Amino acid sequence: MTVSTVKTDHASAAVPPVARPTVSAHIIKDAAEAIAIAHALAAEFARDSSRRDRERIWPVAELDAFSQSGLWSINVPKAFGGPELSYATLARVIEIISAADSSIGQVAQNHLGVVAAIRTVSDADQQKLLFAEVLKGTRFGNAFSEFGSKRAADFETRFTDAGDHVVVNGRKFYSSGALLAHLVPIVALDDEGRAWYAIADRAAPGLTVIDDWSSFGQRTTLSGTVIIDNVKVPKTHLVPGYKGYDKPTADGAIFQIIQVAVDTGIAQAAIDETVGFVRTKSRAWIDSGVDNAWDDPYTIQAIGDLTLRLHAAQALLEKAGHAIDRAVTEPTAETVAHAQVVTAEAKILSTEIAIAATNKLFELAGTRSTLAEHNLDRHWRNARTHTLHDPVRWKYSILGKYFLNGENPPLHAWS
């Protein structure tokens, strides 16, 4: 029996690159504009989100609208022409988009994380070059993780020096956004075992992106296998990512807070779906003594509980954003550890509420909510898939060690 209907019929074929944008992206002025644009886009993205999930339709037009809106450059520094908005605002934007379509919200994660890393580790000339690309609307993809390594931070992909460029070889998986990216940052090691972002052109000879992502959730994150066969990357696009972790910086917390925002967005969507279904389709239980499902006292209590827990996760998400802002401007062991810890707290609550809300949806809405025509299981599938990033059991360890023994979290992209 086949449970998944995900279409990967042409998984062995290379996906051709997409064209760069012909006009520069919008540049957002302030936080209010960013939130307003996010809400407007989310209203559009939500319309066909269920169909995209069911049929695994790539969000091509949606992604173009998203990246051209200016939301993909909101953490570009003002010194280089960007908005440089708060990470609390950035997280709220991702949450809003993810409530409409969590796959689209996730696609932006690594792009925004790489933008943050460039700010942290690149020299002024490289920042000017790469930030100019971002402001044009150029999208970074992701070729970070590898499928067969012992641990997530173990990389076999390497590059060799070839004068004015490097030559990269390796194989990647979990490459969210790579299918429709314009540039693909590849995590590759140098001769000293240090990890760099080798930012390759999506159309570079030897760079092959394969559409073989077959997960039951987050189906349209534009992920899959990336094969890197003697890919040339100019040294202007070789970013020393390792420098973001050889001393305290906010880089790891930035990658993490975006994961949190995706999960709170999924939780918000599930709660909204539950309320909508109970208000319009569910029947009152036979022993409840009420005529309407929304008057069921147990349902009322459950919605109150779920909403409270979501609000707690959102409050920690906002707090984490402000802690990251401070760690970006004042990077010390103390400010960075605080940002990591608050983000870990938010990650725990966001994971728990995403799983609880997507599961409770069916209990409260009733058997009718499981019908295929509603496709409400996509929220649970998305939550279960996405919350597997950076397991919360290790977040509890971070908190315990910090508060009990004064031990700061490790410096890497998963902490």
UniProtKB/TrEMBL annotation:
Any GO BP: L-leucine catabolic process
Domain Acyl-CoA dehydrogenase C-terminal: 258-390
Record has Transmembrane as a keyword: no
Record keywords: Oxidoreductase
PANTHER family: ACYL-COA DEHYDROGENASE, ISOVALERYL-COA DEHYDROGENASE, MITOCHONDRIAL-RELATED
Residue ranges of domain Acyl-CoA dehydrogenase/oxidase N-terminal in the record: 41-137
Protein name in the entry: SfnB family sulfur acquisition oxidoreductase
Any one Pfam family match given in the protein's UniProt record, by short name: Acyl-CoA_dh_2
UniProt feature coiled coil, ranges: none
Record-level Gene Ontology MF annotations: 3-methylbutanoyl-CoA dehydrogenase activity; flavin adenine dinucleotide binding
Keyword Oxidoreductase: yes
InterPro entries: Acyl-CoA_DH_C, Acyl-CoA_Oxase/DH_mid-dom_sf, AcylCo_DH-like_C, AcylCoA_DH/ox_N, AcylCoA_DH/ox_N_sf, AcylCoA_DH/oxidase_NM_dom_sf, S04_starv_induced_SfnB
Organism: Mesorhizobium sangaii
